[in-house]
Amino acid sequence: EVQLLESGGGLVQPGGSLRLSCAASGFTFSTYAMTWVRQAPGKGLEWVSSISGSATNTYYADSVKGRFTISRDNSKNTLYVQMNTLRAEDTAVYYCAKDLGGVVPAAIADVWGQGTTVTVSS
Amino acid sequence: EIVLTQSPATLSLSPGERATLSCRASQSVNNYLAWYQQRPGQAPRLLIYDASNRATGIPARFSGSGSGTDFTLTISSLEPEDFAVYYCQQRSNWPPITFGQGTRLEIK
């Protein structure tokens, strides 16, 4: 069974940093692109970032470009996002998702984790 | 950036009825449109991709149609577990990947 388990969320002050992790199991992690999607409280879904299976290519929403860095460790079957210079508007549940395509992102999220909550507040 | 507009914002129906949800794109996305379901307190779930392809394990009562700028998600006969929020998402011209604002399907 394909499973994704996010961790690393919490309360952080504006301007602070946080690193989220997503542990994957049940599939050959290195052969699939991965994505982070977030959802602010009571709001809709917002794409954050994607990474190819080999980590060669990364993609970012304008709202996080320059502040967030997506990465992966295929030896550990784990996806990461390093979030710096956090703002109140980054407060959200962060979901990691497996791409339906393959090594190259197809931009279709076919399996989602349960999410981890990030709260940016003083 | 391609903007997706979903309608209606809220749809009130009874179990057994047919649901029709719409998603309109600000420019053509060809058939590169997906639909997701999100039940309260849960992560989203992929229902349909590339306009009309059901994802693995999705019941046949869910169907998608459309191309270009106008798309429809149809649920032929509503089950109690189908009452949720539904999002469309485009992958035609990315980044960025964009989602619609969602349609809430509620029990009448």
Entry summary:
The complex is a heterodimer of chains A (122) and B (108). By secondary structure, chain A is an all-beta fold. Chain A has no helices and 11 strands.
Please give the structural blueprint.
The complex is a heterodimer of chains A (122) and B (108).
Chain A: E1 3-7, E2 10-12, E3 18-25, E4 34-39, E5 45-51, E6 58-60, E7 68-73, E8 78-83, E9 92-99, E10 109-112, E11 116-120
Parallel strand pairs in A: 2-11
Antiparallel strand pairs in A: 1-3, 3-8, 4-5, 4-9, 5-6, 7-8, 9-10, 9-11
Chain B: E1 4-7, E2 10-13, E3 19-25, E4 33-38, E5 45-49, E6 53-54, E7 62-67, E8 70-75, E9 85-90, E10 98-99, E11 103-107
Number of DSSP E strands of chain B: 11
Rg of chain B, rounded, reads 13 Å
Total strand segments of chain A: 11
What is the rounded Rg of chain A? 13 Å
Largest sheet of chain A: 7 strands, mixed
Separate helix tally of chain A = 0
- How much β-strand is present in the residues of chain A? over 45%
Most strands sheet of chain B: 7 strands, mixed
Low-confidence segments of chain A:
none
Question: Using CB atoms under 8 Å apart, which protein chain pair has the greatest interface?
Answer: A-B, 23 and 25 residues
Structural class of chain A: mainly beta
How helical, in percent, are the residues of chain B?
A: under 10%
Task: Name the helix and strand elements of chain B from N-terminus to C-terminus, one letter apiece.
Answer: EEEEEEEEEEE
First and last CA, distance of chain A: 40 Å
Keywords:
heterodimer; A: 122 residues; mainly beta; 4-stranded antiparallel sheet; B: 108 residues; 7-stranded mixed sheet; 0% helix
Characterize the structure shown.
The complex is a heterodimer of chains A (122) and B (108). Chain A is an all-beta fold. Chain A contains no helices and eleven strands. In chain A, the strands form two sheets. In chain A, strands 2, 4, 5, 6, 9, 10 and 11 form a seven-stranded mixed β-sheet that branches. Chain A has a four-stranded antiparallel β-sheet with strand order 1-3-8-7, with no helix packed on it. The N and C termini of chain A lie far apart (40 Å). In chain A, 43% of the residues are buried. Chain B is an all-beta fold and 108 residues long. In chain B, 0% of the residues lie in helices and 49% in strands. In chain B, the strands form two sheets. In chain B, strands 2, 4, 5, 6, 9, 10 and 11 form a seven-stranded mixed β-sheet that branches. In chain B, strands 1-3-8-7 form a four-stranded antiparallel β-sheet, with no helix packed on it. In chain B, strand 4 and strand 5 (45-49) form a beta hairpin. Chain B is globular. The mean pLDDT of chain B is 97.
